[in-house]
Amino acid sequence: MNIPRLHFAHLPTPIETLSRLSEILGGPHLLIKRDDQTGLAFGGNKTRKLEFLVAEARDQGAKTLVSGGALQSNHCRQTAAAAARFGFKCILVLTGEKPKQPSANLLLDELFGAEIIYVADRNDRDRILQGTFDRAAEERMKPYLVPYGGSNSTGALGYAFAMKELMAQNLQADWIVFATSSGGTHAGLLLGQRVFGYKGKVLGISVDESEEWLKHCVPELASTASEKLGKRIQFTPDEVIANANYCSAGYGVLTEQEREAIRLFATYEGLLLDPVYTGRAAAGMIDLIRKRFFKKDETVLFVHTGGQPALFADQYAKKIQ
């Protein structure tokens, strides 16, 4: 299996027991996979994807990484860092108005030397991202388009092999719970579950997408990614477990549920979640625990996908308190 990959993530990331949180919630036994400790620019789940994406860019002779996301995108922060580390130019197309003073992820993007293009209307982002890529190609900058969230068949391999890592760590969990959005992490875990034999259930708690969208896109992405490992595996919507009950407030909109989840993890475990992804996924998990969705004798692994720099963004810092 000769798949291009650069090894720069700090792996394997540890699995820790959340004993105090398990006790206070009175539900299943809780574990956490510390993918906030992958090492690149404060870490996060995108680092695993970028090991494959940057390797592909390098092998294609690219000189510039082009990507996009929200103003406080964790994916863009890690992409900019990977570009800096491996000598690529980086152009980011970010949704939002340019602030007077950059903070959190945006500040880090600038420190890593990324060129930033601001897009006022999210509906224009795809068009401007493609236009940015085309312009870079015309200017002979040899661009490589890193998809939103690193979520294509190449990026999804990061979490297929994360499942292999979990199995090597002798994971004994009935459920794996994580934040899902662009689908790459979800698809990778689904693929890894099949290939490496995880017998539990994989539950993605949506940050912004509908269950219908996830059940359509995730199996197709997992199926396409499987071709890179050998023979195509055809996944179906029925194999995707997703919960979209906690994203009605909108992407990046902090509600009392996220605030409570962030406080609980901080107060009882000394762990920091982010306000957009892990905060929302943890809030959903906590609500499901309280509703007895999980059996009390089950073990649930929460995947911490990182994102803590967003805690210090002006738009979130005051709202978390």
Topology diagram in text:
Blueprint: E1 15-17, H1 19-25, E2 29-34, H2 46-59, E3 64-70, H3 74-86, E4 89-95, H4 104-111, E5 115-119, H5 125-138, E6 143-145, H6 153-168, E7 175-180, H7 184-196, E8 201-206, H8 211-226, E9 241-243, H9 256-269, H10 278-290, E10 299-304, H11 314-320
Parallel strand pairs: 2-10, 3-4, 3-6, 4-5, 7-8, 7-10, 8-9
Antiparallel strand pairs: 1-2
Helix pairs in contact: 1-9, 2-3, 2-6, 3-4, 6-7, 6-8, 7-8, 9-10
What shape does the CA trace take? globular
Low-pLDDT sequence parts: none
For the terminal residues, how far apart are their CA atoms? 49 Å
Instruction: Count the beta strands.
Output: 10
